[in-house]
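Appendix B. One record, verbatim.
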Amino acid sequence: MPKPLMRIPYTGRMPDPIIVPRSANTPTGSIAALTDFFSAKSSRTGKHHDHAAQKTVLLTGAGMSVASGLADYRGANGTYTLNRTYRPIYFNEFVTSHEARKRYWARSFLGWTNLNRAKPNAAHYAVRDLGDLGLISKVITQNVDSFHNHAHPSLPTLELHGYLRSLVCLTCGHASSRATFQQRLAALNPAWAEFLASALAAGALDTEEPEERRRRGLKTNPDGDVDLPDAPYTTFRYPACPACSETLAVGAGQTLEGEEKRVRVEVDKDGAWLPASNAGVLKPAVVMFGESINAGVKAEVEDAVDEADRMLVVGSSLATYSAWRLVKRAHERGMPIGILNLGGSRGEETFFANLPVDNTGQWGVRCSQSADKILPELVKNLRDVYRQQSKH
């Protein structure tokens, strides 16, 4: 039986970025190297093809969405960089602790509005354009913001760590809308809803400047939640799964899939989940830290790597094992690797070792630049290259 794949963060220090080739130390040099990366007609796997037949699989991380106003983890203004005490909630903690879920949903409630308003940025649309040029086969994203799906619906996106747009019940598997859930949270927590409305009206949640947020007592984290120090999280209420509430209410307990214990859902007069319940807990449809990635998703992303000739990583430090292992897999298959990420990425010293001395990007490229600035210019450059090639 295959070993389950878990989302585990890497807490070690990231290496300084290795710039490959050396000319890629400027935006112009980075664009030139990436142009060579995409224009190469062969790879170390021995395959040869024209540009229209190339298959590059893209792996993206939180740095891809920074220009959309979302926080990343390890960038200059990332959560781990500015908040050394930050600790994400772990799957087992969410599943077993009512108080942990109160805290999680309160923070998510405060952060959802701005996350829901955020839009894809120029980097996402550049990925669409690269797909239109026939250069990208599939996108694997660690991000849970659904920006790739919105920006390029016709280019397949595999969401390695799930998505925030939906919830799933841990008992019955019923899926429901996060936007609808936000309305239910507001109805159950009028004081919190009033605070959120006043914060939004005052623009307190509009700024993405870290210093300004700290002055206002707010800490925004990559998965869209807002930490309000000393907030009365224990007062927060969250609803039970609507499907379970109908079928597993007190007095209507059932045995699921041969389990010995009877499952039940208890709610208060307003429909909030009560700790006397042993079912009906709703969870965001994301893979939390410490949670196993769905076996079907694991197989899909591995196939996407195996079917490609090259891999380009954008906006990821590869700090989670589930992402790093995919790059390791590509490297072991002899595929050229490209990384476009501000700051260091896990294991990059291995990925770029022993490249040919004449490498200008075709065998591997490492740039420490912003994706929203580089990728649109890369698209323009590639279009010019192919236009010139078509004339000969």
